[in-house]
Amino acid sequence: MIYKDFERSVELVHERMGVTREEVLARSKTTNIKNGRQMVYWLMRLRGHKQSRVAQIVGRDHPTIAHGVKMINEKLDVDPKFKELWPECAGRKVQERIPRVKKMEPVK
Length: 108
Prior knowledge:
The protein is mostly helical. The protein has helices at 2-17, 21-25, 31-46, 51-58, 62-78, 80-85. It has one domain: Orthogonal Bundle (Chromosomal Replication Initiator Protein Dnaa, Chain: A). The chain contains six helices and no strands. Helix 3 (31-46) crosses helix 5 (62-78).
């Protein structure tokens, strides 16, 4: 399932942004490629995949995925051209990190 979601996310990014699968997996810091890569992270998290699994697939670490998701959340808030590319995503947020639940102390 995760691999199908990854391929579909890459396909969407390629259709809308022109970023190829190879570019998503590469280390390029060119703005369009970086944004496309981060959008793949965002789409994968939107589909409910854990950061660690997304990180494994793209060959990154989970803080990189969290950072990319945060950047896309911000970009969807402030960049009208980016919102235009992804109208179905405007107004949606994906959590960069799933908050940890603290263990409750036993009642004495």
